[in-house]
Amino acid sequence: MRYLAMVGLLILLVASSAVGAENLVTNPSAEESAADGTPKGWGKYAGAGGVRLAVTIDERHSGKSAAYLELDKWHTPKDAQDSPENRSVSGAMILAENDGYRVKGALSCKPGARYAFSFWYKGTVSAAKVTVTGWPSEKADHNQRISVSVNAKPLRPGDQWQHCAGSFRIPAEVERFVVLILASGQEAKGFRLGKLYVDDAQIVAKEFPNGELRGLWWGFVKAPEAEAGRREIDESLDNLKAAGINSLFVSTASLYVAALDRPELQQHQPQAVWDAYGEILRAAKIRNMQVHAWFSPWIYKNTSRAVELRDHPEWAAVNSAGVPDTKGLCFIRPEVRKFELDLLARLVDRYPDLAGIHIEEPGFNWGTDYCYCEHCQTLCRQWFGIEIRKDPESVRPMLHNLAAFMCSDFFARLQEMVLAKRPGMWLSANGSGGRNTDWYIGRDWTTWARRGYLDFYVPQLYTKSVDAFRKRGLETKSCLGECDLVTGMAVSWSSIYPERQEPQVIRAQIAASRELEARGFIVFHRDHLYNEHLTAIQEAVEAGKPASESK
To answer: Residue 157 pLDDT more than 50?
Structure first.
């Protein structure tokens, strides 16, 4: 049977953007003032000392005004000497009509959901930070406040506007929350009174369509020319949408990205002439499907699909025998990490509807010791005083740690870039499943998950056994901390290709994913699917839909 189901015209006309999340801050630039001079929609927490919240037209990042918090009086405990060691102050502006104590005015939220925030700030106070307070219900009292962990850097105000962005995950027991920009300290420890200005504030929920990620890895458009390519895209997305898929993880080769701006490369990447990636995003948006850039910074760098070793053959990873890798990069080199970060930043800037960055199989290639290139030899000579080519066996543990450290550096910088440019974007990676035994090649995903660099991690649970799938999924989840689990399953993979997974196994593995309370699933990959697999996915999706979605 041929599997073909067209999306209805009505859906195409009314579907909303998959990534156009609503700003929960109702007056983000403090353009509207209340009768008392405070910004409408904002609140104030007064912990100690003199605290005032107001609107100013004299200092603004954009628009006509900004909000500011003024700390103008020290608090000294009763019966204590009025001296610097006893003087303190504490106050916050709140991005909701709330006082930081009671639940009134707090924002509603879904337990377990992820949120991102950003704003611009400057000022004369010494320091500040972002905190999040939650309550278990709309009827909770102030004694039931819950502190929510926040992933954001401390604020160091100065005379120039700076950008702050971060994210947090709502705990399972929280149904209401507020974001506070808190300034507090003691005079004896160097804190000084002053003002903190804030403008262009936003809080956005990071959501999947339908509340569950139902994803598919997709190699890319095969048709080289625009008309045929657009037909291929529309037909593929219609079929996938009908099967319940709502998220596409689309392969993003560096040669394609380079060819967008370099005509001499377009003969190797003809889809760049008509920007096939942009066409995928256009087609996905009208179907309310998300697109994540599926990209490998480390490996799969053969010159037929990647630009790095074409332009910089010296960037190749080198094994202990001195043989350069023809498809893998030395990620110890800072210029390599910078190149990959810059390339991903170009994607974020070019495609405003891109929902996420998804890193493919981080780390060096399997089966070989890395890296012994000239850069690594010089670095280890300078840092550790050793010649790594003389005794590769003894230096191997050091090189493993070096690989893990540098790859973690990349993820920290990647998260910083994404938060600065598009706080609401998803950041994820895929790789091994079970308990992490792959850190030595640089794939230290347990560290990235627990440090908050990733929103979700996708273990490649490629197996014919549903029991093994469930067991390895549970083991992976136990290592993730606050990072979400999204299960990866395959229709075919290297050890069974060209054989295909039985459709009923895919259906059962999707059910097992829900039993694990994963945020969703991703299937590998589009070109391996038969019509029977799409039917199995559709049946599994329908079986697990909440009643509200099935109506």
So the answer is: yes
What pTM value is reported for the model? 0.90
User: Alpha-carbon distance 319 to 371, whole Å?
Assistant: 6
- The full 3-state SS of 455-486, as one line of letters, equals CEEEEECCCCCHHHHHHHHHHHHHCCCCCEEE
Dihedral (Cα; 170, 176, 179, 183), 10-degree rounding: -110
Q: Residue 314, Cα to own-chain centre: how many angstroms?
A: 31
Alpha carbon of 160 to those of 3, 156, 198, 245, 416: distances in Å? 58, 11, 12, 45, 20
Cβ contact 39:30 at 8 Å: yes
3-class SS of residue 499: coil
Whether 31 shows a pLDDT value over 80: the answer reads yes
Q: Which amino acid is at 432?
A: S
Question: What digits encode the pLDDT tens for the residues 514-551?
Answer: 999 999 999 999 999 999 999 999 999 999 876 556 55
Confidence class of residue 15 from pLDDT cuts 50, 70 and 90? very low
Enter the DSSP assignment of 298: S
Instruction: Give CA–CA dist 353/366, Å, rounded.
Output: 34
- Tell me the C-alpha distance between 505 and 171, whole Å: 33
- Mean pLDDT (the chain) is 93
Determine the Cα–Cα distance for residues 364 and 371; give it in Å rounded to an integer: 9
Is pLDDT above 50 for 16? no
Q: Are 350 and 293 in contact (CB under 8 A)?
A: no
Cα–Cα nearest to 303, from 295, 313, 293: 313
Q: How far is CA 33 from each of CA 71, 181, 271, 341, 491, rounded to the nearest angstrom?
A: 20, 19, 51, 41, 57
Residue 443 to residue 365: CA distance in whole angstroms = 10
Task: Compute and round to an integer the Cα radius of gyration of the chain.
Answer: 26
Question: Do 95 and 203 form a contact (C-beta atoms < 8 A)?
Answer: yes
Segment (H or E) for 185:
strand 176-186
Instruction: Answer whether residue 13 shows pLDDT above 70.
Output: no
Q: Residue 190 — φ and ψ, nearest 5°?
A: 95, 0
For residue 303, list its beta bridge partners. none
Q: Give buried/exposed letters for 281-309 (b at 16+ CB in 10 A, else e).
A: bebbbbbbbbbbbbbbbbbbbeeebbbbb
Beta pairing, strands 176-186 & 162-169: unpaired
Instruction: Please report which confidence band the pLDDT of residue 20 belongs to, taking 50, 70 and 90 as the band edges.
Output: low
Give the list of residues 6+ apart from residue 55 with CB closer than 8 angstroms, or none: 30, 33, 37, 38, 39, 65, 66, 67, 68
pLDDT for 21 equals 75
